[in-house]
C-alpha cells in the first residue's frame, strides 16, 4: 500500500524516525527525512539509499518549517517523531526549561502539522507523537505529561478539522533510542533493566516496535483520531 508513496519523516535521522524510514522504504515508498543534525542526516541518508532525501530542519523555528514544506511540495504522509524529553520536580524545574520542552515537542509538532497539512494529499495522513506520561502520572514528569497530553488533544481535534486527511497519535513508553544517550551507559542500562522488569512484557521497547506502529497507521485507512499506545503495558503496571 505504500509503494510509490511520498512520506515525510521529521526526526528521520535517528531512533524511531530512522527505523520508520527503513520500514517504509522496504515497502517501496519514497522518503524525505528532516532533522537538526547534518551529520546524523548524512549518515542516515547513506544507510537509507536512493529512495531517501534529507533536509536540515529546526522545528522550533516556524519560518524554517514553513519554508521546508514549500520546498517539499505535495506528499502522501507526514510523521513527526522528532522531540526532546526532560524530567524533574515541578517546583525545582526552571521555567525556561519547561518552556523549551513545549517549544520542542508541542510547538515543533504544531508547526509541522500547520504547514504540512495543506501539502498532504486527501487520501493521506499525519502521525504525531505523544507519550506514556500523558496517560500515567509519574513523579518528575509534570511538564512532559502536560506536553504529551497537549499533543494528543491537538491531533484528535485535527482529525476532525483536517478530514478526510487522517490524523493519529503514537504514545510510546520507555524506548531504547539515542535520545537517552546523554545518560551514562551504566546508569542507562540499570534504568532499562529496572523499568523492563516492571512491565508485563518484561523488557523495554525498541525503535523497531514503534516503527511497526507507524507502518500500521500509515496503511490502515479506517483509523483516525486514535492514540496508539506502544508501551509494553506501562499504563497497567
Your description of this structure?
It is a single chain. The protein has a single domain (6-228), classed as NAD(P)-binding Rossmann-like Domain (Rossmann fold). The mean pLDDT is 94. The chain is globular. It is of the alpha/beta class and 237 residues long. Strands 3-2-1-4-5-6-9 form a seven-stranded parallel sheet, with helices on both faces. Strands 7-8 form a two-stranded parallel ribbon. Strand 4, helix 4 (95-116) and strand 5 form a beta-alpha-beta unit. It has helices spanning 15-26, 38-48, 62-72, 95-116, 142-161, 185-198, 207-219, and strands at 6-10, 30-35, 52-56, 75-80, 120-129, 166-172, 175-176, 205-206, 227-230.
Keyword list:
Rossmann fold, 7 helices, single chain, alpha/beta, 237 residues, 9 strands
Q: Poorly predicted ranges (pLDDT <50, ≥5 residues)?
A: none
Major sheet: arrangement of strands: 3-2-1-4-5-6-9
Discrete helix count: 7
**Molecular shape:** globular
Overall mean pLDDT stands at: 94
Share of residues in strands: 15-25%
CATH topology: Rossmann fold
Termini, distance in Å? 36 Å
Most strands sheet = 7 strands, parallel
The helix/strand order is EHEHEHEHEHEEHEHE
CATH class, named Alpha Beta
CATH superfamily: NAD(P)-binding Rossmann-like Domain
What does the radius of gyration come to?
17 Å
Q: Structural class per helix/strand content?
A: alpha/beta
